[in-house]
Known about the structure:
By secondary structure, the chain is of the alpha/beta class. InterPro entries: Amidohydro-rel, Metal_Hydrolase, Metallo-dep_Lactonases.
Amino acid sequence: MRLETAGRVASTRLRRHKGRTSRTLENEAAALEYGVARNEKCGPTNGRHCSQQRGRNLETIDAHHHFWNPARGDYGWMPPDDPVLARPYLPVDLAPALQAAGVGRSILVQAAPTTAETEYLLGLADASDHVAGVVGWIDFERPEEIDTLRRLSAHPKFLGVRPMIQDIADEGWMLRDDLDWAFRAICDLDLTFDALGFPRHIEPFLALFDRYPAMRVVLDHCLKPTITDESPESFDEWARGIARIANGTTAFCKLSGLVTEAKDDWRREDLAYYSSHVLEVFGPERVMWGSDWPVCRLRCEYEEWHKTAVELVSHLSDAARARVFSGSAKAFYRLT
């Protein structure tokens, strides 16, 4: 994508009307073109194929979900009384949703900053045919963990690592010289790096990706744009930063987590401008869909988010949709 196009998209401005957030008529027209206008229904009455049926006909890999058991005691970020999150989520709980959405394989991602949880997830993966691979965790601040990383990399379902950067107070943590061993090991072992952060991490991520150009990187959750309390400034910061990463690096991006950043009464159009921008600057060849289950359950069930994602990419060609729902995950994580 040309940089001037990225700038035009990023310069979208928000306006308030009758207490609701909307965008300029120019972008409203773009949403109509992309088939994401409010209250649009799929079906024969408007000449569109039903997007839900399209989704079921696609080979689908869920590129981002979790399993956990709070009783393990290593999920310090989880509110112990949260009615949605603070309960076990295991393969048996996810199986009906995978079947309903037609998802054949998945990527299981760490949710606790312990190697013990990574071992636990690899055990679940070994017992679950649909889990194609695991993105785990090591302690980047302990160089002796190189032996742990080498050992984990020998497991056929171990794909890479994800430090929980969003929870680290130091925004430039990943650029510390004493962490160099970890990033070099990721490159040397040909592992992947899931970048979990916020828009405020765009600058340090750009520096990191420039420092290690051989590292295979994917941005989790579109770098969590501010959707609930969006403003012209927050949208511009995120959109311009995402465009710089897309144009200046080889990073991929996960179309996941957007619904969790939205309001409780979210609508598809609330997410459309973000998904459209990601698809435009990265191209479908570097975008992969993920559910972020069970975190997505804070806003909706698995099948609803999957159906919404199918609608958000309904303007793409068959080949491009196939890339978003399986091809990009296959290419990035090197799934066979």
